[in-house]
Amino acid sequence: MEQIKKSLNEIVKSLISEKKVEYVFGFEEGTLPLKSVPLYIEKEEDIDRMIWNEYCNLNLVKFLLEEPHGKKIGIILKNCEIRSLIVLINENQINREDIVIIGVPCSYGIIDFNKVSKLIGGKEFTEFKKNGNDYTFKGVDFEKTIKLQDILSNSCVYCKDKNPVEYDYLVEAPIEFKTIQEEDIDEYLDVIEFEKKKPKERWEYFKKELEKCTLCMACRESCPLCYCKVCFIDSNQPQWFDKTEDLSEKLLFHMTRAIHLAGRCIMCEACTRACPEGINIHLLYKKLRKMSKDRWNADKIELGDPSVLGSYKIDDPQEFMVKED
Questions:
Q1: In which band, very low, low, confident or very high, does the pLDDT at 275 lie, cut at 50, 70 and 90?
Q2: 140: Cα separation from own chain's centroid
Q3: pLDDT tens string 113-152
Q4: Do the Cβ atoms of 247 and 210 come closer than 8 Å?
Q5: Dihedral (Cα; 188, 191, 193, 195), 10-degree rounding
Q6: Number of neighbours of residue 263 by Cβ within 10 angstroms
Q7: Rounded Cα–Cα distance for residues 268 and 252 (Å)
Q8: pLDDT interval class at 31 (50, 70, 90)
Q9: Global confidence as pTM
Q10: What is the C-alpha to C-alpha distance for residues 307 and 113, in angstroms, rounded to an integer?
Q11: Which helix (H) or strand (E) holds 195?
């Protein structure tokens, strides 16, 4: 990680000092342990505050949507986040020429705070220490050591693309960046296991998960691909949503959002990590992505490619219209 940080500092310093960008989006330490917050790097002295580690887990692309076109901005991104930027460029929400992408090869991945909280019984920790792949968390009345693989975001566990697919500057990193899993696993293994369940079991799973939902909209707010100025859930002309906590209302929101993300989700899992209730809503979006891959071979996200539901080919398979999936 030190090698990455050194290379990152050099690139950012060059961009700022040579005025190639107005500022760079990065991360700095948060006020709580294991937390990071976005950092606007406008001056060389700001670089000293910049960090890069396994808890830099926000998708900074979300913040680009608020910036005006024509402003040259640098941004530090991992590959999954770069894919979300590509989707926004393809959908004409961001101009590629406005963005300077600093691509960072990903090592094992990023930490899921919800997993940490669950493993320490919801207790508050005041400090943590890292020793190789062991993380020791300390609180007022406890101390617990957890393996990195037990607190990694699921998207990182199954990720196959560790190297940036699009960038202007590439951060130098160790040659071998591997998944922490010893065996080679299918990136859709969690979906495949879920598909083995009977329809009633699948329904009961999502019913139980969504009953925990408080409609706080953290999943929507964390997703870089939710950029509508007025979400259907907030629209009152027409009124689509009654804003109650009935299960039917929760299903309406999550299923409609899932359809909006079909074939577009870049599997960064920001939604699940942002959820204060720890709902694994990402599994639903990933299932739709697997369906898009199986049916239309729509798995790679590349510049210039339209979304799978935003394009049509005469030879597109249509068996889903007459055959239940």
A1: very high
A2: 32
A3: 999 999 999 999 999 999 988 999 999 999 999 999 899 9
A4: yes
A5: -130
A6: 21
A7: 23
A8: very high
A9: 0.89
A10: 31
A11: helix 189-195
User: Are 185 and 208 within 8 A, CB to CB?
Assistant: no
State how far the Cα of 283 lies from the Cα of 289, in Å rounded to an integer: 10
Q: Is the model's pLDDT at 306 over the cut of 90?
A: no
Written as one letter, the residue type at 172 is: E
- Round to whole Å and give the CA distance between 289 and 262: 6
b/e sequence 286-299, b meaning 16+ C-beta within 10 Å: bbbbbbbbebeebe
Q: Which two tokens stand for residue 16?
A: 């700022």
Tell me the mean pLDDT in the region 148-173: 88
Please give the DSSP secondary-structure letter assigned to residue 166: S
Distance (Å) of CA 145 to CA 122, 136, 192: 15, 4, 31
> Terminal CA-to-CA distance of the chain, rounded, Å?
44
Joined together, the tokens standing for residue 167 give 């960038």
